[in-house]
Specification:
Elements lengths: L10 H8 L11 E5 L42 H10 L13 E2 L2 E2 L1 H8 L28 E3 L9 H4 L7 H19 L1 H10 L1 E5 L2 H9 L6 H22 L3 E5 L8 H4 L9 H24 L4 E5 L1 H10 L8 E5 L1 E2 L14 E2 L6 E3 L7 H13 L5 E2 L3 H6 L1
Length: 391
């Protein structure tokens, strides 16, 4: 989607942003890039995008039971990540494309998204995210969310769902960086980027497409091309000033209803799970190498693969009773269609691992994020997300 050239922020925005005390803020903002696990409405603004969650029953457990663009019955991974950084009373930062009005930046919207509200007391990460009660209303955290449902590491894979390519999301980060540099100055912008964690979650769709379409590609070569693009993305963000990276690994993707419904016996996709593990190993090596040679870089790799294995194989530990079916859908495993107003909807949503054909329920996502944010090295390494946010 083409956007207008950069415009400057209003005097109000400049004054508010200039009043920050960034030197004393552990994490003044949070920036999120990725796919449908993190999308909070970006695709509502992308005309051709296939994946949109703006219809019921999406959002049935969201504020006022309103679809928000999140592929969830309520809050999604971006919301719980924002809570790790800012405490339990916030939701995800706004979608980048929501900062536009009739194709142009609405200047006060960016100022509000980036401005640290002095009346909001910053809370250090808690020991838990307290599932109930959820906040009474949507309360966007400071920062910007660039994620788009269907985004893949490779732009050619993003095109399958007409989603924003990963390169588009990086371009949008550059737009925000340039806009801020022109108004608050390059030094303040560098400090903001250096102190704010960048959470990145991509790779799910690259694995999905390879496994579902039985791609006749050498898996090793495919992984290599994914890692080259991933590395280039991280390097670009680092060159812009990003220093704190929260990386979301590819989950235990082969056991989603979407994968299993395509297999005659309903088994998990070994191809999908093997490729996810291989990609995760490569990303971890890449992160270690980059941190070794990149001054000031710190990272936390979130092992969503193993926590989803735990949820799938020992659901009773988490009070989950159904790991097979989607809560919302139709047909075999409720996975013959995506969630929509005419789909079958389960009642006990917190007892389902999967909300729709490929996305975990709000409860399962919360368990995943809490385990990575506050857990040990099996699930988050070399530090957890709470530690990353506090540095």
């Amino acid at each position: 989607m083409t956007r207008s050239p950069m415009v400057t922020l209003t005097i109000f925005g400049i004054a508010a942003i200039a009043s920050w005390s960034l030197s004393n803020a552990a994490s003044p903002a949070v920036f999120i890039l990725g796919d449908s696990l993190l999308d909070v409405g970006t695709n509502n603004f992308v005309l051709k995008a296939v994946g949109k969650a703006k219809y019921p029953h999406y959002g049935i457990d969201f504020f006022n039971s309103t679809p928000s663009g999140r592929f969830s019955n309520g809050l999604n991974m971006a919301d719980f990540i924002a809570r790790v950084v800012f405490g339990p009373d916030v939701t995800s930062p706004p979608a980048y494309l929501s900062l536009f009005y009739h194709g142009k930046y609405e200047e006060k919207r960016l100022a509000k998204a980036i401005n640290f509200n002095p009346r909001r007391r910053w809370r250090r990460p808690t020991n838990g995210l307290n599932p109930h009660p959820l906040v009474a209303r949507e309360n966007p955290a400071v920062g910007v969310n660039f994620a788009s449902s269907g985004t893949a590491i490779l732009d050619i894979n993003s095109a399958v769902d007409q989603a924003l390519a990963l390169s588009d999301q990086v371009a949008h980060v550059m737009h925000v960086h340039g806009n801020l540099s022109a108004t608050i100055g390059s030094w303040q912008t560098q400090v903001l980027f250096a102190k704010s964690p960048f959470f990145i979650g991509v790779g799910n769709n690259d694995v999905h497409f390879f496994a579902l379409f039985r791609a006749k590609l050498d898996p090793d070569q495919y992984i290599l091309s994914l890692l080259e693009t991933y590395n280039a993305t991280l390097q670009t963000l680092y060159n812009l000033g990003a220093r704190k990276f929260g990386i979301i690994g590819v989950p235990y993707i082969g056991c989603s209803p979407l994968m299993r419904v395509t297999i005659l016996g309903g088994n998990c996709s070994k191809t999908g799970n093997d490729l996810a593990q291989q990609l995760n190993s490569g990303i971890e090596r890449l992160l270690w190498e980059m941190a070794r040679r990149s001054k000031g870089m710190i990272y936390s790799f979130g092992n969503t693969y193993d926590i989803l294995v735990d949820l799938y194989e020992t659901p009773e530990r988490f009070n989950i009773t159904n790991v097979r079916d989607a809560c919302c859908g139709l047909g075999r495993f409720n996975a013959m269609t995506n969630c929509h107003p005419l789909a079958v909807l389960c009642r006990n949503r917190d007892e389902y691992l999967f909300w729709d054909v490929s996305h975990p329920s709000q409860y399962a996502v919360q368990v995943m994020v809490e385990s990575i944010a506050f857990g040990g090295p099996r699930l988050a390494r070399p530090i957890n997300w709470a530690r990353l946010a506090s540095l």
